[in-house]
Specification:
The chain is built from 11 helices and 14 strands. By secondary structure, the protein is an alpha/beta fold. α3 links the parallel β5 and β6. The longest helix has 19 residues. The radius of gyration is 21 Å and the shape is globular. It starts with a strand and ends in a 21-residue tail after the last helix.
């Protein structure tokens, strides 16, 4: 792939130039959808948080942002049922893709989810990017069982998540999921020789818009073998002593190698998430300045696993360009997701996105949504 020249910050008359072989083409926002009790600013009600989510997507679409994504958590004051939000945001926007990062497959009825995603994909002309995964730690004790998803023998429920994912992929690819009752009511034009019934509505190629949130190198390889796009977040459930970006770069390259070996015949996409706050005003400095001062990768425990957490970027635009140009995982991915604080409300979040789009993203090779749908890099 041909590189791109990035113009960084200046010292006197000297301009720093960075040559990046692979570089970010698309960026979006990733919201955790937090809300509170509706007691005032910073303490959103559920209704306000949902309405704000749609309005942020509308504003981001106008800025040229490529994607609007939401985390999904159950039994928490956060976004939980994503499809209504995605449908509402999609109906109000023109170009931005809407999606999740990620749906917890332990909780899902895979056939009902296949129906919902098929309908959503058709309604929005394929403007979706649906991230799914095993899920993250939660406050509910085996909460998926209260949703009727029983039978897991794994303390973290990974076995049932993978089983649900296998059936979801079969369903979206048109594999029959029920037998035809020849003595019952037949759809018009349905032959008696039909061996089985597929999930409807069926949206051809839907799997190409599904992603897996991978937390390790091994899971990234599994993701590639399944024919799913790769979504890598601000933490990895590994700690080797390497810098977070270097560890994530290795994860992405394992994924790409496994994808080539699998021979799927189409080009996947790869996203990484970062906490990034451009400082372009005194108010930005008050809100975000401390987040970036001395920020560095951290090692900690999550879900019983020793993990590496990425640092926060909060600085003036020229500094951010230099820092992100040096982030090897951002360079290797085609899509960058900016984590946003839903509690800030619509205006402040759009300000962050506008500042990134205006002052940082162009120097990183960004192609706004007016350039067409987001795409990955060919793995030649």
């Amino acid at each position: 792939m041909s590189g791109v020249t990035l113009k960084g910050g200046s010292e006197g008359n000297r301009v720093t130039t960075y040559i990046v072989e692979d570089y970010m083409k698309s960026f979006g926002f990733l919201s955790f959808g937090h809300y509170g009790h509706g007691r005032g600013p910073g303490d959103l009600s559920a209704a306000q948080a949902l309405q704000d989510a749609v309005e942020i997507a509308v504003g981001a679409d106008e800025i040229g942002v490529n994607g609007a994504y939401w985390r999904v958590h159950h039994y928490a004051r956060q976004a939980a049922a994503p499809v209504p939000v995605l449908a509402a945001a999609g109906a109000r926007t023109k170009r931005i893709e809407v999606g999740t990062g990620v749906i917890d497959m332990r909780y899902e009825n895979p056939l009902y989810l296949a129906e919902e995603l098929g309908a959503l994909d058709l309604l929005l002309d394929q403007r979706i990017a649906i991230g799914i995964s095993r899920g993250s730690p939660e406050q509910a004790l085996r909460g998926w069982e209260s949703f009727g998803c029983t039978g897991s023998t794994d303390p973290r429920g990974a076995d049932i998540a993978y089983a649900h994912t296998e059936r979801l992929l079969a369903a979206v690819n048109g594999v029959p999921q029920a037998k035809l009752d020849k003595g019952g009511m037949l759809m018009e034009g349905e032959p008696l020789t039909t061996p089985g019934l597929r999930i409807e509505p069926h949206s051809p190629g839907l799997q190409r818009r599904l992603w897996w949130g991978a937390g390790s190198r091994e899971t990234a390889e599994w993701t590639a073998r399944q024919g799913l796009n790769l979504m890598s977040s601000t933490l990895l459930t590994e700690a080797t002593g390497a810098a977070f970006a270097d560890l994530q770069l290795e994860q992405i390259r394992w994924y790409k190698d496994a994808w080539r070996a699998a021979g799927h015949g189409w080009t996947p996409r790869v996203s990484v998430s970062r906490s990034i706050f451009p400082i372009v005003s005194d108010l930005d400095r008050q809100l975000f300045g401390l987040r970036g001062e001395g920020s560095q990768d951290q090692i900690g425990m999550i879900d019983g696993l020793r993990s590496t957490f990425g640092k926060t970027y909060a600085a003036e635009p020229d500094v951010l360009v230099e820092q992100l140009a040096a982030d090897v995982a951002v360079q290797e991915a085609d899509t960058l997701m900016l984590t946003i604080l839903s509690q800030l409300g619509v205006d402040d979040n759009l300000h962050v996105l506008q500042a990134f789009a205006e002052h940082v993203a162009p120097a990183l090779g960004w192609q706004p949504n007016t350039s067409g749908p987001a795409t990955g890099y060919a793995l030649d």
